């Protein structure tokens, strides 16, 4: 299975074009005003107009009300919403219903997080709303919207990994290991492909995508080798 790739925190047309050229699957816009990557709904709408078909556009929100998210979606036609704050399971379901969009919910992983907590949280969200799509696993820090720091990937249960979006501290240097070691459905990166906060680096984006594809090829090679070994 090909690992899907999301590049988050886009603010400029040239960065959107760089993501498209790289072959990534999704782009993210940050609607958290305290973030250096914040864009207004109007600015996001301008950028979305440059996106071709079959690319997922994602809006990141932090502790926003259902009304705020719904109003944003009316201006910026997002494909998917990403709830990156302290929203409860019920609040996440209510926000998605108000916006009329599927959603991902972040789980900010701590050093003492237990694998069963991740499974239980996913099950709770899935039971709460038919619009829930997946957990996005990020690192717990005293901030919202991602901080570019990693967590212990071994905490991700193997039966959950194919359904999660892996984020937090990813870079060109560790993307291959992340894909091979965790085998997530998708990976999400922002600061790891930037020249400065909010300004993406086209070369880093392309190199990151290549590193993910190397991971996919490694898994495929290992799978073929295992299937060829006589039982």
From TrEMBL:
Spans traversing the lipid bilayer: none
Domain (N-(5'phosphoribosyl) anthranilate isomerase (PRAI)): residue spans on this chain: 5-210
Keyword Isomerase: yes
One GO BP: L-tryptophan biosynthetic process
EC number: 5.3.1.24
Keyword Transferase belongs to the record: no
Annotated pathway: Amino-acid biosynthesis; L-tryptophan biosynthesis; L-tryptophan from chorismate: step 3/5
Keywords: Amino-acid biosynthesis, Aromatic amino acid biosynthesis, Isomerase, Tryptophan biosynthesis
GO molecular function, one term: phosphoribosylanthranilate isomerase activity
Catalytic activity: N-(5-phospho-beta-D-ribosyl)anthranilate = 1-(2-carboxyphenylamino)-1-deoxy-D-ribulose 5-phosphate
Broad enzyme group: isomerase
Signal peptide location: none
A matching Pfam family: PRAI
Superkingdom assignment: Bacteria
Family, similarity comment: Belongs to the TrpF family.
Cited PANTHER family: N-(5'-PHOSPHORIBOSYL)ANTHRANILATE ISOMERASE
Protein name: N-(5'-phosphoribosyl)anthranilate isomerase
Organism, as annotated: Duganella rivi
Phylogenetic placement of the source organism: Bacteria, Pseudomonadati, Pseudomonadota, Betaproteobacteria, Burkholderiales
């Amino acid at each position: 299975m090909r690992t899907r790739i999301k590049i988050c925190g886009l603010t400029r047309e040239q960065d959107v074009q760089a993501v498209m050229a790289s072959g990534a699957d999704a782009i993210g816009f940050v609607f958290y005003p305290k973030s250096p990557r914040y864009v207004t709904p109007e600015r996001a709408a301008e950028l979305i107009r440059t996106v071709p078909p079959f690319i997922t556009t994602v809006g990141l929100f932090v502790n926003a009300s259902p009304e705020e998210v719904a109003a944003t979606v009316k201006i910026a036609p997002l494909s998917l919403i990403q709830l990156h704050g302290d929203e409860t399971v019920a609040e996440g379901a209510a926000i998605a219903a108000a916006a009329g969009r599927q959603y991902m919910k972040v789980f900010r992983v701590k050093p003492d997080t237990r694998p069963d907590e991740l499974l239980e949280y996913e099950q709770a969200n899935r039971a709460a709303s038919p619009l829930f799509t997946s957990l996005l696993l990020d690192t717990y820090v005293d901030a919202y919207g991602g901080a570019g720091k990693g967590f212990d990937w071994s905490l991700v249960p193997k039966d959950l990994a194919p359904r999660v979006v892996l984020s937090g501290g990813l870079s060109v240097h560790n993307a291959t290991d992340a894909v091979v070691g965790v085998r997530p459905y998708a990976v999400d990166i922002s600061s790891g492909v930037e020249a400065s906060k909010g300004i993406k680096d086209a070369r880093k984006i392309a190199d990151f995508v290549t590193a993910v594809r190397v991971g996919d090829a490694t898994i495929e090679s290992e799978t073929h080798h295992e299937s060829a070994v006589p039982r």
